[in-house]
Design brief:
single chain, mainly beta, 4-stranded antiparallel beta sheet, 3-stranded antiparallel beta sheet
Length: about 180
């Protein structure tokens, strides 16, 4: 029993002695913003864009953030790790042109000066699904068929009118083809 107590004490002392002055985690805020993102290119995709870039050579770089404001005035923000060279910006409900601001952010949360890109996505997946939607009569209900080549998260609700005239969702799983 005494041997176990000595062993535990030795283990604890070794752990304390092995600690270094170096800190791991959030660095102090040096107040210096990282350099700007460079060499950008934009790939338009259905309802989103992929922005590829070169990172600035700052040692305390943490991530890249892309921001845009939709037509309703709502601001969207998308982040990408410093271990990748692209960010996916999603949620475009149309094919209009949008301004996307790209920032490099360091460990002290200092933002670089923005790079503003004019982007437009391809037709959103919900529109593509709607264009392929086929509704046919089935036994005691309807059959829905549609294409979702993008494998997007799209919900199709079929509404039925209840006896009091209120429209409520019906149970209709649909068929992919």
């Amino acid at each position: 029993i005494m041997y176990k107590k000595h062993l535990i004490i030795c283990f604890l002392l070794l752990n304390l002695l092995s600690c270094k002055e170096d800190r791991i985690g959030i660095a102090d805020n040096d107040g210096i913003a990282p350099g700007q993102i460079a060499n950008t290119s934009v790939e338009s995709l259905p309802g989103k864009v992929k922005i590829t870039y070169s990172l600035p050579p700052d040692e305390d770089l943490m991530y890249v953030v892309a921001e845009y404001v939709n037509k309703s005035g709502k601001k969207f923000e998308f982040k990408a790790s410093l271990y990748t060279n692209y960010v996916i910006v999603e949620g475009f409900g149309d094919v209009n042109e949008y301004d996307v601001n790209l920032y490099a952010v360091d460990r002290g949360q200092n933002k670089s000066a923005p790079i503003t890109l004019k982007v437009h996505s391809l037709k959103p997946p919900v529109d593509l699904v709607y264009e392929s939607l086929e509704i046919t009569a089935g036994f005691g209900g309807i059959i829905t068929k549609y294409k979702n080549d993008e494998k997007a998260n799209v919900v199709i609700n079929v509404l039925t009118q209840e006896s009091l005239g209120k429209w409520v969702p019906a149970n209709s799983p649909g068929i992919l083809y």
